[in-house]
Design goal:
With 436 residues, this protein is an alpha/beta fold. The protein is built from 16 helices and 14 strands.
Length: 436
């Protein structure tokens, strides 16, 4: 279905086509994306871009920057990944999702161009992520955005988004994640993410390990790119950091990173302190310690999918217990042993009972795998569960007492499945197209 013979007549056939591309896997390298962008006339060069990378926080910072610019009255493009429920979430203009009809039209336009590129060399057919990136670039051009905020998919140096020529680059954090692809040390991962730094383009860095910051600064110096550090601008005292409507101390770090980036934009953008503060209180970014009331019950949704994120989860769980005087029920799922072990270590310490759900993704850790990583003495508190039984309808959670908080955490894909159940207005989930 992925070849030139494919007939993209409706949204269902487009999803099949895109899934066939996705099944081909992740292919690092930006030469294919360069060819695709060139064939499209380089739409990504028709508007200013803020390019955002980082192990954690890059989605939140992207959403915060968008909220500030939108508050100031500018027309914004926002490209993020993966989606929670619907594919169109990845590409937004003024926070309006790419529609199914637009996805069908763009796929039909891109397919023959991609086929031509593929015919010119081995293994050159654009990937699923490159298709979505091209859709974003075209949508932003045709909707005449004033500025686009583009989140890196993975890493930076070889990511498809790295064809942009940004006005500002942002590196939010460096942690150990995607080690097989990016390297198994802070320095190696930092070097991959530093690949988005462009000559003479300002770089904003969040809170980084010393080893990682050294690498970032070295790469920036080589490219004559001035570095602006959150630590240098705001210090290490959280009380000095900007407030945001997203919960958690780490979101105040993200808000500081965002504020620093916003202040680097020229005066014409009219981002006063007041506008920045208002924007930071208007951020829409689900699944980041998001509190929901479900049938009178308190529910928290939090995508803490890697070891760095789990450190933040631990702090939030500690604060929650201090606030409520009781341990929560925790629902968790993860992708891969590295992430799952880090997650289990925390949820077993802070959860009264723990329910493990296997996300509907090929890389997901199964219940059998995860229970084997739980100490025998703890296993009586750990249970197998399914999204459909925990959330049988949009108003019901079947776990815990009515006065007890339920925390759903771990994989962002698990959160997407839960949101599909409790917020049916989002539509049917598109989990097959979630991963990457």
């Amino acid at each position: 279905m992925s070849g030139p013979e494919a007939k993209l007549t409706d949204y269902a056939s487009v999803k099949d086509y895109l899934y066939a591309l996705k099944a081909g896997g992740v292919k690092f390298g930006i030469d294919r994306m360069r060819r695709l962008s060139a064939a499209l006339g380089h739409p990504e060069r028709s508007y200013p871009v803020i390019h955002v990378a980082g192990t954690n926080g890059k989605g939140s910072v992207s959403a915060m920057i968008e909220a500030i610019l939108h508050t100031a009255g500018w027309r914004t493009g926002l490209y993020t990944s993966p989606h929670l429920v619907k594919l169109g979430e990845r590409v937004q203009v003024d926070r309006q999702l790419l529609t199914e009809a637009e996805i069908v039209a763009y796929a039909g336009e891109l397919m023959p161009i991609a086929a031509k590129i593929a015919s010119e060399g081995n293994d050159e057919h654009p990937t699923f992520f490159e298709f979505m990136t091209a859709m974003a670039f075209l949508q932003f051009q045709r909707k005449r955005v004033d500025i686009a905020i583009v989140e890196v998919g993975m890493g930076g140096r070889l990511d498809a988004t790295n064809v942009v020529q940004p006005d500002i680059t942002v590196i939010t954090s460096i942690g150990l994640d995607h080690v097989a692809e990016l390297g198994n040390s802070f320095a190696q991962i930092a070097r991959e993410k530093a690949g988005i730094i462009k000559p003479n383009c300002p770089v904003v860095i969040g809170r980084l390990p010393a080893e990682a910051e050294k690498v970032i600064r070295e790469v920036a110096a080589e490219k004559n790119a001035p570095v602006h550090s959150v630590r240098e601008a705001f210090g290490d005292t959280i009380e000095n950091f900007p407030q945001t409507n997203l919960a958690g101390d780490y979101q105040r770090w993200n808000a500081a990173t965002t504020t620093l980036a916003a202040k680097l934009l020229p005066a014409k953008w009219e981002l006063s302190d007041t506008v920045i503060a208002r924007g930071l209180q208007a951020v829409d970014w689900p699944g980041r310690w998001q509190r929901v009331t479900l049938g009178g019950r308190s529910l928290v949704l939090d995508a803490s999918h890697n070891p760095e994120g789990v450190e933040v989860l631990e702090q939030n769980l500690r604060n929650l217990i201090a606030e409520t005087g009781r341990k929560p029920i925790i629902v968790a799922g993860a992708l891969g042993e590295f992430r799952a072990r880090a997650l289990l270590d925390v949820v077993l310490r802070y959860g009264e009972q723990v329910y493990l759900i296997t996300p509907k993704q090929a890389r997901a850790s199964t219940f059998e795998e995860m229970i084997n990583w739980v100490p025998i003495a703890e296993r009586s508190r750990v249970h197998r569960a399914e999204v459909e039984t925990v959330f049988p309808d949009a108003n019901t959670c079947t776990l815990g007492a009515t006065d007890q908080t339920v925390v759903v955490t771990g994989s962002i894909y698990l959160l997407g499945e839960v949101l599909e159940r409790i917020e049916p207005r989002r539509g049917a989930g598109e989990g097959k197209l979630q991963d990457f």
